[in-house]
Amino acid sequence: MDLTLLRKELANKDIIESLVFLSDKFKDEIVFSTSFGLEDQVLTHLIFSNNIPIKVFTLETGRLFPETYYVWNRTLEIYNKPIYAYYPDSSSLQEMVSTKGPSSFYESVSNRKECCYIRKIEPLKRALEGNQCWITGIRADQSTNRQHMDNLEWDEGNNMIKYHPIFDWSLADVKSFIQTHNIVYNTLHDKGFPSIGCAPCTRAVREGEDFRAGRWWWEDQSKKECGLHTVES
């Protein structure tokens, strides 16, 4: 895929036009992954309210916050469109929990990465299989790692185009859009949770802390990614 050409084709299009263009270019082979955070709710609204034919999916890790499940249900009710759930492989999950217990991820980085792989990475690969374009809600200022990305990139690991429509938006932009369009969102965002993942691995962020300090807070703070959107520097 010629990314330079694709960037030129998207250059003068707004977000809705870009999503429509990509949904036509990658017909039935384009997906959007949501974890029901602020950014993802913005894109879900744009996709569903404009009837853009992009499949929306989420990773049901089995460890989400009650507030996340509430947003999931309300989103289904409001837009009356499916959000496809991908679960961990039951055999792999059963083996990990049986041998290491339900909280092994606290014990070491390798254990945490194993849990992330079983609950998120492997299901993601199944969700992306057979597709050519992956839409995400990534923003540049969410972490140092993400500042090295581009809004349109080639995902070597998944062999597909990756597009981040609101990559250059600020958090204020996102909140303003949510408010203007009265979009349902996770109330944990109002309680110091800028980034919301699995409940046992996420805490509120204190004033002055990094955006992703609340994720896997017991580990090295310098690089906080589960592996879904990591790029090598």
Question: How would you describe this protein?
Answer:
The chain contains seven helices and six strands, in the order ααβαβαβααβββα. The two termini are 22 Å apart. It has a six-stranded mixed beta sheet. The longest helix has 20 residues. The radius of gyration is 17 Å and the shape is globular. The protein is of the alpha/beta class and 233 residues long. The chain has one domain: Rossmann fold.
Looking at the overall shape, the CATH architecture is 3-Layer(aba) Sandwich
What's the structural domain tally?
Answer: 1
Q: What share of the residues does DSSP label as strand, in percent?
A: 5-15%
Shape: globular
Classify the secondary structure makeup into a structural class.
alpha/beta
Beginning-to-end CA distance, first to last residue: 22 Å
Mean pLDDT across the residues is: 90
Which sequence of SSEs, written as H and E, runs from N to C? HHEHEHEHHEEEH
Poorly predicted segments: 222-227, 229-233
Number of strands: 6
Tell me roughly what share of residues is in helical segments.
25-40%
**Gyration radius over CA:** 17 Å
Please work out how many helical segments DSSP would assign: 7
CATH superfamily: HUPs
Mind summarizing the main beta sheet?
6 strands, mixed
CATH topology annotation: Rossmann fold
Query: Taking strands numbered 1, 2, ... along the chain, how are they ordered across the largest sheet?
Result: 3-2-1-4-6-5
* CATH class wording: Alpha Beta
What topology does this entry show?
Elements: H1 3-10, H2 15-25, E1 30-33, H3 38-49, E2 55-59, H4 66-79, E3 84-86, H5 90-100, H6 109-128, E4 133-135, E5 152-155, E6 160-163, H7 171-180
Parallel strand pairs: 1-2, 1-4, 2-3, 4-6
Antiparallel strand pairs: 5-6
